[in-house]
Amino acid sequence: MAQLFEVHPDNPQARLLKQAVALLEKGSVLAVPTDSSYALVCHLDDKAAADSLRRVRGVDDKHHLTLLCRDLSELAGYARVDNRQFRLLKSATPGPYTFILEASKEVPRRLSHPARKTIGLRLPEHKVLQELLALLGAPLLATTLIPPGETEPLNEALDIRERFEHQIAAVIDAGACPMEPTTVVDISGDGVVLVRQGRGPLAALGL
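RESULT FIELD:
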Protein backbone atom coordinates (compact mmCIF):
# COMPACT_ATOMS: atom_id res chain seq x y z
CA MET A 1 0.00 0.00 0.00
CA ALA A 2 1.15 3.52 -0.75
CA GLN A 3 2.57 5.42 2.20
CA LEU A 4 0.75 8.48 3.54
CA PHE A 5 2.90 11.39 4.72
CA GLU A 6 0.69 13.76 6.71
CA VAL A 7 2.52 17.09 6.88
CA HIS A 8 1.69 20.55 8.19
CA PRO A 9 0.78 22.80 5.23
CA ASP A 10 2.83 25.77 6.49
CA ASN A 11 5.57 24.05 8.47
CA PRO A 12 6.05 20.59 6.92
CA GLN A 13 8.04 18.05 8.90
CA ALA A 14 11.44 17.71 7.23
CA ARG A 15 11.86 14.07 8.28
CA LEU A 16 8.72 13.08 6.36
CA LEU A 17 9.70 15.04 3.28
CA LYS A 18 13.15 13.42 3.39
CA GLN A 19 11.45 10.02 3.29
CA ALA A 20 9.48 11.20 0.26
CA VAL A 21 12.71 12.37 -1.42
CA ALA A 22 14.28 8.96 -0.79
CA LEU A 23 11.37 7.32 -2.60
CA LEU A 24 11.73 9.71 -5.55
CA GLU A 25 15.44 8.94 -5.77
CA LYS A 26 14.61 5.24 -5.96
CA GLY A 27 12.43 5.83 -9.01
CA SER A 28 9.01 5.98 -7.38
CA VAL A 29 5.95 7.99 -8.43
CA LEU A 30 4.35 10.16 -5.73
CA ALA A 31 1.19 12.24 -5.41
CA VAL A 32 1.90 15.74 -4.08
CA PRO A 33 -0.14 18.90 -3.44
CA THR A 34 0.42 22.02 -5.53
CA ASP A 35 -1.06 25.52 -5.64
CA SER A 36 -3.61 24.31 -8.22
CA SER A 37 -4.37 20.62 -7.64
CA TYR A 38 -2.69 17.37 -6.66
CA ALA A 39 -0.07 16.17 -9.12
CA LEU A 40 1.78 12.97 -9.90
CA VAL A 41 5.54 13.50 -9.80
CA CYS A 42 8.74 11.56 -10.36
CA HIS A 43 12.47 12.16 -10.67
CA LEU A 44 13.39 14.10 -13.80
CA ASP A 45 16.31 11.90 -14.83
CA ASP A 46 14.62 8.50 -14.39
CA LYS A 47 13.11 7.26 -17.67
CA ALA A 48 11.53 4.21 -16.05
CA ALA A 49 9.87 6.45 -13.46
CA ALA A 50 8.58 8.78 -16.20
CA ASP A 51 7.14 5.79 -18.07
CA SER A 52 5.48 4.63 -14.85
CA LEU A 53 4.04 8.11 -14.27
CA ARG A 54 2.49 8.07 -17.74
CA ARG A 55 0.97 4.63 -17.13
CA VAL A 56 -0.60 5.76 -13.86
CA ARG A 57 -2.01 8.87 -15.53
CA GLY A 58 -3.13 6.91 -18.58
CA VAL A 59 -1.35 9.06 -21.17
CA ASP A 60 1.13 8.29 -23.95
CA ASP A 61 4.52 9.80 -24.72
CA LYS A 62 2.90 12.65 -26.68
CA HIS A 63 1.26 14.04 -23.55
CA HIS A 64 3.05 17.21 -22.45
CA LEU A 65 4.54 16.73 -18.98
CA THR A 66 5.66 19.71 -16.88
CA LEU A 67 8.82 20.48 -14.94
CA LEU A 68 8.23 21.75 -11.40
CA CYS A 69 11.12 24.05 -10.50
CA ARG A 70 11.98 25.68 -7.18
CA ASP A 71 13.12 29.02 -8.59
CA LEU A 72 14.08 30.83 -11.77
CA SER A 73 17.74 29.87 -11.44
CA GLU A 74 16.80 26.28 -12.37
CA LEU A 75 15.14 27.32 -15.61
CA ALA A 76 18.36 28.07 -17.49
CA GLY A 77 19.27 24.40 -17.69
CA TYR A 78 16.02 23.43 -19.38
CA ALA A 79 14.72 26.38 -21.40
CA ARG A 80 15.95 29.19 -23.61
CA VAL A 81 14.85 32.44 -21.97
CA ASP A 82 15.56 35.95 -23.27
CA ASN A 83 15.32 39.15 -21.22
CA ARG A 84 11.69 39.79 -22.14
CA GLN A 85 10.64 36.30 -21.15
CA PHE A 86 12.64 36.44 -17.94
CA ARG A 87 10.94 39.68 -16.86
CA LEU A 88 7.54 38.09 -17.46
CA LEU A 89 8.49 34.97 -15.53
CA LYS A 90 9.84 37.02 -12.66
CA SER A 91 6.65 39.08 -12.42
CA ALA A 92 4.34 36.05 -12.34
CA THR A 93 6.24 33.48 -10.27
CA PRO A 94 5.96 31.66 -8.03
CA GLY A 95 2.29 31.01 -8.69
CA PRO A 96 -0.33 28.93 -10.50
CA TYR A 97 1.04 29.35 -14.02
CA THR A 98 2.51 26.92 -16.54
CA PHE A 99 4.83 28.49 -19.11
CA ILE A 100 5.56 26.90 -22.48
CA LEU A 101 9.14 27.73 -23.43
CA GLU A 102 11.66 26.65 -26.03
CA ALA A 103 13.52 23.66 -24.64
CA SER A 104 17.29 23.88 -24.35
CA LYS A 105 19.58 21.29 -25.92
CA GLU A 106 20.20 19.82 -22.47
CA VAL A 107 16.58 18.67 -22.16
CA PRO A 108 16.21 14.97 -23.01
CA ARG A 109 14.17 14.51 -26.19
CA ARG A 110 11.62 12.41 -24.31
CA LEU A 111 10.74 15.40 -22.12
CA SER A 112 10.19 18.07 -24.77
CA HIS A 113 7.27 18.30 -27.17
CA PRO A 114 8.16 15.98 -30.11
CA ALA A 115 7.15 18.42 -32.84
CA ARG A 116 7.76 21.88 -31.39
CA LYS A 117 10.80 21.32 -29.13
CA THR A 118 9.07 23.14 -26.29
CA ILE A 119 8.70 22.31 -22.62
CA GLY A 120 6.24 23.25 -19.89
CA LEU A 121 7.70 24.80 -16.74
CA ARG A 122 6.12 25.70 -13.41
CA LEU A 123 7.34 27.47 -10.26
CA PRO A 124 4.65 26.52 -7.76
CA GLU A 125 3.73 28.63 -4.76
CA HIS A 126 3.08 25.83 -2.27
CA LYS A 127 5.13 25.62 0.91
CA VAL A 128 5.22 21.82 1.08
CA LEU A 129 6.14 21.38 -2.57
CA GLN A 130 8.78 24.10 -2.33
CA GLU A 131 10.36 22.32 0.64
CA LEU A 132 10.26 18.99 -1.20
CA LEU A 133 11.99 20.52 -4.24
CA ALA A 134 14.61 22.12 -1.99
CA LEU A 135 15.42 18.81 -0.32
CA LEU A 136 15.57 17.00 -3.66
CA GLY A 137 17.76 19.70 -5.17
CA ALA A 138 16.35 19.23 -8.67
CA PRO A 139 13.12 19.81 -10.62
CA LEU A 140 10.37 17.19 -10.65
CA LEU A 141 8.58 15.82 -13.68
CA ALA A 142 4.84 16.26 -13.13
CA THR A 143 1.31 15.87 -14.47
CA THR A 144 -2.04 16.79 -12.96
CA LEU A 145 -3.51 13.89 -10.99
CA ILE A 146 -6.56 13.13 -13.11
CA PRO A 147 -7.53 9.43 -13.11
CA PRO A 148 -7.64 7.75 -16.53
CA GLY A 149 -10.97 8.31 -18.26
CA GLU A 150 -11.97 11.17 -15.94
CA THR A 151 -11.84 14.95 -16.37
CA GLU A 152 -11.43 16.29 -12.82
CA PRO A 153 -8.35 15.96 -10.60
CA LEU A 154 -8.57 14.16 -7.26
CA ASN A 155 -8.24 16.39 -4.22
CA GLU A 156 -8.40 14.19 -1.12
CA ALA A 157 -5.22 12.43 -0.04
CA LEU A 158 -7.00 9.37 1.36
CA ASP A 159 -9.02 9.01 -1.83
CA ILE A 160 -5.84 9.26 -3.90
CA ARG A 161 -4.15 6.65 -1.74
CA GLU A 162 -7.10 4.27 -2.06
CA ARG A 163 -7.42 4.71 -5.83
CA PHE A 164 -3.69 4.34 -6.57
CA GLU A 165 -2.43 2.30 -3.62
CA HIS A 166 -0.64 -0.25 -5.83
CA GLN A 167 0.56 2.20 -8.51
CA ILE A 168 2.32 4.92 -6.55
CA ALA A 169 4.70 4.80 -3.60
CA ALA A 170 3.27 7.59 -1.45
CA VAL A 171 0.89 10.49 -1.06
CA ILE A 172 1.93 13.71 0.66
CA ASP A 173 -1.12 14.95 2.55
CA ALA A 174 -1.05 18.67 3.28
CA GLY A 175 -4.80 19.22 3.02
CA ALA A 176 -7.04 19.98 0.07
CA CYS A 177 -5.78 21.95 -2.94
CA PRO A 178 -7.67 24.80 -4.66
CA MET A 179 -8.91 22.40 -7.39
CA GLU A 180 -8.43 24.94 -10.15
CA PRO A 181 -5.96 24.34 -12.99
CA THR A 182 -2.99 26.55 -13.73
CA THR A 183 -3.14 29.31 -16.27
CA VAL A 184 -1.10 28.09 -19.26
CA VAL A 185 0.67 30.58 -21.50
CA ASP A 186 2.95 29.94 -24.46
CA ILE A 187 5.85 32.40 -24.48
CA SER A 188 8.11 30.31 -26.72
CA GLY A 189 7.59 32.78 -29.59
CA ASP A 190 7.62 36.55 -29.81
CA GLY A 191 4.45 37.19 -27.83
CA VAL A 192 2.31 35.78 -25.04
CA VAL A 193 -0.34 33.30 -26.17
CA LEU A 194 -3.00 32.23 -23.70
CA VAL A 195 -3.47 28.46 -23.95
CA ARG A 196 -5.75 27.97 -20.93
CA GLN A 197 -7.12 30.41 -18.41
CA GLY A 198 -6.96 29.01 -14.92
CA ARG A 199 -6.22 30.11 -11.39
CA GLY A 200 -3.37 32.48 -12.30
CA PRO A 201 -4.63 36.05 -12.92
CA LEU A 202 -4.07 37.34 -16.44
CA ALA A 203 -3.13 40.81 -15.21
CA ALA A 204 0.24 39.51 -13.99
CA LEU A 205 0.96 38.51 -17.59
CA GLY A 206 -0.11 41.81 -19.10
CA LEU A 207 -3.17 40.18 -20.70
